[in-house]
Amino acid sequence: MSEEKKPNNFIEDIIEDDLNNGLSNDKLRFRFPPEPNGYLHIGHASAICLNFGLGEKFNKPVNLRFDDTNPAKEEAKYVDAIKKDVEWLGYKWDNLCFASDYFQELYDWAIQLIKEGKAYVDSQSSEEMAAQKGTPTEPGVDGPYRNRSVEENLTLFEGMKNGDFGEGEHILRAKIDMKSNNMLMRDPIMYRVVNRDHHRTGDTWKIYPMYDWTHGESDYMEQISHSFCTLEFKPHRELYNWFLDQIVDTDKVRPKQREFARRNISHTVTSKRKLQKLVEQNIVTGWDDPRMTTISGLRRRGYTAASIKNFAESIGIGKRDNLVDMNHLEFHLRDDLNKVADRVMCVLDPIKVVITNYPEDQVEMLQAENSQEDESRGFREVPFSREIYIEREDYREEANKKFFRLKNGKEVRLKNAYIIKGEGCIKDEDGNITEIHATYDPDSRSGSGTEASMRKIKGTLHWVSAAQALPVEVRLYDRLFTVPSPDTDKEKDFMEFVNPDSLEVITAMAEPAMKNLSIGETVQFQRMGYFCVDPDTTDDKMVFNRTVTLRDTWAKLDA
């Protein structure tokens, strides 16, 4: 039976309708247009997957275009980071473009609008302009400079371009309709003076185009057929079309703007401004802090590109903004890591166990599978000796029948090793357990095929040989915010909800084979979760980030 065809989302339906209504298939072209003023986050990842996914579905090119029209906030480092993110997600762009590539064309078109009486230089203060623009319920009024002559507008605009004026002295506005019900149509700003060097054009330009003027015209110059953006730009569509009306050639493709809903993620923020605040106030260590839901932060934490793409596909494309639970993202992460991550043993809260009947000087190498689900991943050797570490919580002197870990007089299996029985413990003067004593069954080695090795034991523990243990730094990351939606409370600043326990740093004991792991490699610490080798790792110290726990630990807290 053939595979069932996946139904279209409404964005794909729009494209199909356009094709059915006469748009030539070879005219399809898409774009992803980030601003290089910060790092991309999980919301951008959904937009990347949408636009590049459309390219894959329709087998058409997708441009990566940087809307770099504000040199006060944009930097080349953000361009490099965004390119890396897109490539890491597994996508390839057709043309690498920049809005700054079109500054001359945009300027020439602006001159054309001035000559046609459709743009003018306004010399009011920002406060004066705001007052005359009106409100959503009251129409605006014409400003005192709205009817300047074409000659005066051209002279002033040329002066703006040449750097004759300071920031805020003059702006260029489109001359549309000060009484429009859509406030964006009330003579929007097209150009402002910015006395900053641009990351690509240097000091060539003293004026920079606004987003609304730049975006549609850039789409047109690149012959983008469909320009998809988030819902907050829906009111901008009328202006997008008005600007295109002024310059389009009927023989060329006219871009179509359509909008889709944001997918916000619980327990985080996705505003670049708010993410920047977290960085600036040292709540996190940088844009790639593993607690951040930037793509670079998720990558450093150990997320896989496949898990993010699967997540984006699962939440789909909607017409209404909503909040997606972080657990949904983590579900796809666990699902992917379960398939691709090797299993290793690392004890996070170690306490020593002395196996009193095991030979003191003996060390034997045991076989441990790298994946219980995939035998093709092979085996590795782990050392076993008289003294081992186990998790402190895995031992109790006495416990009820539901405690299936190590306790006095009861047996437990050591993963890939032997069955041991608790015999007692040593305590310090405060009553804290400092050492556990146990005995082992020499005939019970896992995989040996002996009758003893096949005994059914309910509890299995991970462990590490003490003499060969590798001390590692482990960073236990948790939710960055204590509430699902930290930036929607109108009476509180989102910073009030920062989780003070979002990071705990411990020293753990790992099996020696983990020394061979590479930076960025993610493994499962058996029974404890998935962990990734952090770039802070050196020859002298390995550092691991907790990527995600094996099970959701937040569901009950949020209930």
TrEMBL record:
**Record's keyword terms, sorted:** Aminoacyl-tRNA synthetase, ATP-binding, Cytoplasm, Ligase, Nucleotide-binding, Protein biosynthesis
| Enzyme nomenclature, EC number | 6.1.1.18
Instruction: Tell me which PROSITE patterns the record gives.
Output: AA_TRNA_LIGASE_I
Q: Which residues form the Glutamyl/glutaminyl-tRNA synthetase class Ib catalytic domain?
A: 27-338
Please list the residue ranges annotated as the tRNA synthetases class I (E and Q) anti-codon binding domain.
460-534
- Show where the Glutamyl/glutaminyl-tRNA synthetase class Ib anti-codon binding domain sits: 341-441
- For region Disordered, the annotated ranges are 125-146
Recorded hits in Pfam families, A to Z, give: tRNA-synt_1c, tRNA-synt_1c_C, tRNA-synt_1c_C2
- UniProt-recorded Gene Ontology molecular function terms: ATP binding; glutamine-tRNA ligase activity
What domain of life does the UniProt record list for this protein's source? Bacteria
Q: What is this protein called?
A: Glutamine--tRNA ligase
